[in-house]
Amino acid sequence: MKSIEVQDITIHIEDNHFLVVEKPPGIPTQPLPVEAVHEPPLQKTLAHLLSQKFPELKNIGGSDWGAVHRLDVETSGLVIFARDQKTYDYF
Questions:
Q1: Cβ atoms of 71 and 77 closer than 8 Å
Q2: This model's pTM is above 0.90
Q3: Under a CB-based contact definition with an 8 Å cutoff, are residues 64 and 3 in contact?
Q4: pLDDT higher than 90, residue 33
């Protein structure tokens, strides 16, 4: 399987408060709580990839990295990421 990089992620909606991105299959949405503090990450996740372009995600929602929901590793689909804590709390 091809390694997924940030440029491979499709962003459908981007504004100052949230992102709607297309999660490809084969990658976790966000790190597990015990993995969230490791740099470099123990496992590449959608949240880690997005944080390369949107570094504020690392500080939103604790170990969720701004993800307001998740999809299973092998599932593809749209995922919402909050870009600030107020938006994260709203969702």
A1: yes
A2: no
A3: no
A4: no
